[in-house]
C-alpha cells in the first residue's frame, strides 16, 4: 500500500494497493477530514503488510 497526502487545506489523499492474489492494482483519490478517518478505514480494511507514506 502507498499513501500520498498533499499539503493544503483540503487534505487530498491518494491511495494505491497491489493485490497479488487477484493480480489487481487499486487506486483512489479523495478529500479526507483533518483526522484522516477515511485513510484509517482504508488501512484497517485492507490490512497491508507494508505501507509507504509520502507527504508533500
Structure description:
It is a single chain. By secondary structure, this protein is an alpha+beta fold. It starts with a strand and ends with a strand. Strands 3-2-1-4 form a 4-stranded mixed β-sheet, with no helix packed on it. The model has no long low-confidence stretch (mean pLDDT 93). The chain has 1 helix and 4 strands, in the order E-E-E-H-E. The protein has one domain (2-55). Strand 2 (12-19) and strand 3 (24-31) form a beta hairpin. It has one helix spanning 37-46; strands at residues 2-5, 12-19, 24-31, 52-55.
User: Which structural category fits the helices and strands?
Assistant: alpha+beta
The number of strands is 4
Unreliable stretches, pLDDT < 50, 5 or more residues? none
Mean pLDDT: 93
Helix fraction by DSSP (H/I, runs of at least 4): 10-25%
In short:
By secondary structure, the protein is of the alpha+beta class. The protein has one helix and four strands. The chain has one helix at 37-46; strands at residues 2-5, 12-19, 24-31, 52-55.
Properties at a glance:
1 helix, single chain, 4 strands, 56 residues, alpha+beta, 4-stranded mixed sheet
Task: Record the SSE blueprint.
Blueprint: E1 2-5, E2 12-19, E3 24-31, H1 37-46, E4 52-55
Parallel strand pairs: 1-4
Antiparallel strand pairs: 1-2, 2-3
Amino acid at each position: 500500500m502507498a499513501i500520498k497526502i498533499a499539503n493544503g487545506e483540503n487534505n487530498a489523499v491518494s491511495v494505491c494497493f497491489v493485490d497479488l492474489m487477484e493480480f489487481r492494482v487499486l487506486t483512489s483519490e479523495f478529500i479526507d477530514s483533518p483526522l484522516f478517518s477515511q485513510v484509517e478505514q482504508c488501512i484497517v480494511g485492507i490490512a497491508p503488510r507494508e505501507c509507504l507514506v509520502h507527504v508533500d
